[in-house]
Amino acid sequence: MRPAALLCFLPALLAAQTLDGGLLDPAWFGPAAQFRSLPHQAFEWVKPGLALRGRTLRIQPWEAPAWLGRSRGRDDRAFVEDRKGEFLATLAQGLDQGLGGIARVSRTEGDVLVLGRVVDAAAEARDAMFSGVASLSLDLKLVDAVSGDLLAAFHQTLAGDGEREVMARYAPWCVGLGRRLAEADRTPASPPPPVRPALDLPATLDRLEALRRDGVLTEEGYQALLKKARTLAAGK
């Protein structure tokens, strides 16, 4: 690749690698999600004005792991496979606790789908004297079951001294997720922009004609304001 072409390509390449070292793929969430970075390798987006009160969140079975990180071995994959049921059960319990009655959580019904997947995982070293560092990276999104609209998007990487510690951190993360959604429900949406009153075109034209007649407006100024008045009256 020529140096000039490489310089054009480099910003896009770097941008693609900035979200959790490439473990966060925005395409899985769709174009609506405009992620903001949080401490401890967390990213989130919540639809402005999100209202979950009275709705039911349905925990869907997770997709197959995406494995967006480096190549992983059998132990890493077993770390995820052996805990598929635990991921869902802990998520349901944590969301229910964190939401605090704002919304219900179910595994069988609901008008808000909760979709998730693991994007990377590293198991602890099995042959070491001490448990090695383990990690888990996951995506989660809320989707309106009827419209298909994205309601919220989350990405998190959890790490700890061994798989047990990672899972111990996953549980409070799920509770915190529920609290974040409850907080969003209580946050009032931005007020709608004020409605501009309709322009009374005949009266405006009379005023402009009077200003031109009295010499306040030049012919050029009159024509410019006349054009603007007609545009505003047409709602453009």
Low-confidence stretches: 1-17
**What are the secondary-structure elements, in order, as H or E?**
HEEEHHEEEEHHH
Main β-sheet: number of strands, strand sense, barrel status?
Answer: 7 strands, mixed
Alpha plus pi helix count: 6
Helical content class: 25-40%
Silhouette: elongated
Query: Could you say which structural class the secondary elements and strand pairing correspond to?
Result: alpha/beta
Please tell me how large the radius of gyration is: 27 Å
The chain-level mean pLDDT equals 84
Tell me the β content: 15-25%
For the largest beta sheet, what order do the strands appear in spatially?
A: 1-2-7-6-5-3-4
Count the E strands. Answer: 7
- Rounded to the nearest angstrom, the distance between the terminal CA atoms is 47 Å
Protein name: SHOCT domain-containing protein
Organism: Geothrix rubra
